[in-house]
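Two entries, shown back to back:
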Amino acid sequence: MKFFKQLLVAPAALGLIAPMAVSAADLNINDVSDYSASSGEVKSISQFSDVYPTDWAYQALVSLSERHGCNAASPNGSMTRYEAASLLNACLGNIAQVNAEERRLINEFGPELAIIKGRLDGLESKVGEFEAGLFSSTTKLSGSTKFVVGGVDGVTGSEAVNLNYDTTLNLETSFTGEDLLVTSLRAGSFDSGPFSATGGAALETAYGSADALKINRNYYTFPIGGDLTATVGAVVRQDDLLAVWPSVYPATSGLDVLTYAGAPAAYNLSLGSGAGVSYAKDGFSASLAFVATNGDDASKGIMTDEGADDVTGQVAYTGDGYGAALAYTVSDDKSGDYDAFGISGYWTPSEVGAVPSVSAGIGFKEPETGKDETTWTIGLQWNDVGSEGNTLGLGFGSAEGWTDTSGYDDPMTYELWYDMTVSDNISVTPSLFIIEQDGKDDITGGLVKTTFSF
């Protein structure tokens, strides 16, 4: 026990009818509002009244504040006993040993110190009740904000430099320790421009909500037996329902077209009302997922001719540093039904070095009307480049679904990025890219993305 703590216990017990043990280490008046009628940090003791300049305690407190450099000006007027105790606590709260004069001050103001301690305990209790009222003890809050500044060349009317943001807040709650309720809130300003979902250089992080905060995920996952897991949600995405995502590229979001494991028709990331079940054991997994894009729309609904429904089946195997998956999707959409296949996989080296991780995938789309399409993507990533935690990435592949059409150029997409870790919660990612277009000029551009995680 610290010497100062031992000194405080005795006078506190003698000075109060209801004894209290007082610890200087526990007392920190600077952490709470002033307990007196006037609030704020002690800057001058001229406003106080009870301890006068002629008193020995007053002179001792002057010496104390000067000796320890407390956040209080030298007294030039009287003060109350509680304000004197506050100054005493501020000066000696982290002191392990005190001299004789300081010990005498502790004895003199022991009762006031003990009352202050009691008030602090009450305040801490109320703070605890407030925090408990905000979130369940099993709820975790996390989030991120991404700023993207950049521009493109090759998109008519969209060549100005833009600055947009994408913010996500995730609430995850477990009721049994094995289940998970996920609620995700999201807002973004990517409503138009080349980086938006409909732009010529769409980004994966390009979320447009006209700055309104919206529900982006709302689903519940729970076990069924030892190896089966079920997921159901009012707002759930296709990949939330699959046991495996067969790619490690990209480590940080870039061009949207390169983020579908090479098979954007099979892994279409449809979002809506849905449910799924997955089996996983000894590295092998099998998943069945259903998503109704218009499931919340009474005029379209689930499994109707007017609605849009996607059913995906996936089998996958993952080992130490590698994984592969085969996916098949049936998309029933009034605007265009199709079947799609995807074969994707990844490999990561066991040690950091010149050899990058490799993610690759190929996809086949068979629409009910129109020509068949083929897509593919390869992504390379080098970890700890230049500094520990920094990642260099290179991705390339088809810019759109390739068709067997005479004179078709088979346009490609390329991106190069470098993710720099500034701190545990901040990273900065400059990126350059080229997007070829069939029969048109290429789209070229660059951007800098800053990610804040919290």
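entry 2 starts here
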Amino acid sequence: MINFDLKTIGFYFLIVLVPVLIWLWFWLKEDNDHPEPKGLLFFTFVLGMLAVVFVLPIEKWAKGIISDNTSLIVAWAATEEIMKYLAVALIALQTNYLEEPIDYPIYFIIAALGFATLENVLFLNQAGGLDNATVSLLTGNLRFFGATLLHSVSSGIIGVMMGLAFQRSKLIKIVYFVAGLIGAIALHSIFNFFIMKNSGQDFLKIFALLWVFSIIFILILEKLRRLGHRYNYQLIAKS
């Protein structure tokens, strides 16, 4: 049973929040030219956290009806990616602030960081009631390098695909979104599969591969930023 001692939860939040803020700073640097409203980013982050509350019972239900481990991993990944998408769709996608392609992955990454924050706190709280601060810090750092990055990149794939469909037809936008969702679920499932298959062994190799995907992802973000610049220049030229 999870112990919800407020002091313990607060301690775990501090452990988790520091690296998450580092990731937040890193990803927001990709949108330095036209930064998003801080209030909207904050609400997206909070909605990402709240998504965990809905994911947990769904994943528990899925575990009770799905016996095949591979299918269960895919179902869990799909549940998390869909819920993170809904966290973005609920408010951010309803506003007029998504003015250039790079904005889409930024909001998806923010929601993913919110999701990873609460998920990591619950993980630390449930991992045997860790009393040793050093052990807690080490465990938190491992999830910082792994789970948090995985959530950011996998959800960011959806945002990237939606950004690439910027100003395209409605049908194209739907096709790109579906492709992004499938890609996010696939990436999430693959890494979860290898982590669970190896029971945590060889995590450095797995995380190294994740970093390769992350570098590719960052390069794609740069392309989206250039597309945004081109779009802005076109608007200026027309005016």
